[in-house]
Amino acid sequence: MIHDTPEMVYFAGTVGKGAVSVLPEPIKSGDYYGIGFPKGSDLVPRVNEALKKIKTDGRYVAIYKKWFGTEPTAIP
Description:
Blueprint: H1 5-13, H2 43-56, H3 59-68
């Protein structure tokens, strides 16, 4: 089954524990993800700044580890 890595890691560590496993290295598809906002939304710079801040201060890695049980291979 092919699916997004974070969801599969979570599933394999919870409901699917012992029944499924995740490849050690994800298949690189080149897909990108984003957060959609209405055109011209004043939330865009605020969200971008918040994301930058949690990546800089280490919270991004802590949140990732909490939910997926491992450190991210790269911080976007």
